[in-house]
């Protein structure tokens, strides 16, 4: 995706603050369903912070599903505050994960751009 | 309600993805409070998907409260993906339930129209 | 803060309906992170209702953190419906807590003004 997301006004941010693998799996399935329903060009960012960041380290065992969604254009974001608090290195994150300065603030920034918000 | 919801720009979508009867009861009470506070003409859609669809089958024992809210103009929606995955027939759903193609996508479609989003 | 919030169009409402102290602590930390990331002038209202109101009575042991956020301009709101249902007096609430007629409706009123919504 070479889309400049800062000019998109109809994207979707999906909020994932939890580490439970079952819940994370559900959220990833929700994102896949969203793309199927709204079309493959839908701009979606999955924003993890707090324990939710374990999606981005692969700790919850969902690396393959993450990679699949990324290949379909979904941006998977990890919160820099959480990354720092957990003393994670860039190399601890799955390939292609985008680090945003603050996960919670990013969810607001996107809504201010006009994006929809989902908390599955 | 003969309102064409596709032209409404100040409705409210309420997101219910969970099956726990206590939580579902709380969500239904929240919707009733919302109507009381914002006025009976407020357009509200309660969108269930995943385990949340058990509200729409009556499995969680809340059929009477659902009927009461419907009578007051609330649309109760079930996700077609979930309905298919659970092999439910139209006749398994409570009277008046609206099936939407994708629950998660519907929540985005409404926000894009200008509706507010609540995840109780 | 002498800001008239009814004219603000880029505030943030944060939704807290739960009483679990660990979750409440997380939500308060999220709000602090939000202010740090978006700047101290960001208008934030933390809206509690149902069991979430226990934040506002101090029952969950977070009075100091609440006071700290209030000092930084965050409005902490309790739902009047919940306050009445729990037979709370004004004096049962922490100093500076704002009582709104309906917590759930307030979240919609703010979104209609253009505010972002977070459900941590």
From TrEMBL, chains A, B, C:
Lineage: superkingdom: Bacteria
Transmembrane spans: none
One Pfam family, short name: DsrE
Protein name: DsrE family protein
């Amino acid at each position: 995706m070479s889309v400049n997301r800062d000019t998109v006004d109809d994207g979707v941010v999906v909020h994932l603050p939890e580490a439970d693998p079952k819940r994370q799996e559900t959220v990833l399935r929700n994102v896949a369903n969203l793309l199927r329903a709204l079309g493959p060009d839908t701009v979606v960012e999955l924003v993890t912070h707090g324990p939710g960041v374990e999606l981005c380290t692969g700790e919850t065992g969902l690396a393959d599903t993450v990679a699949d969604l990324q290949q379909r254009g979904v941006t998977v974001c990890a919160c820099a505050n959480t990354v720092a608090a957990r003393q994670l290195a860039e190399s601890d994150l799955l390939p292609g994960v985008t680090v945003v300065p603050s996960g919670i603030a990013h969810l607001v920034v996107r809504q201010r751009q006009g994006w929809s918000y989902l908390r599955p």
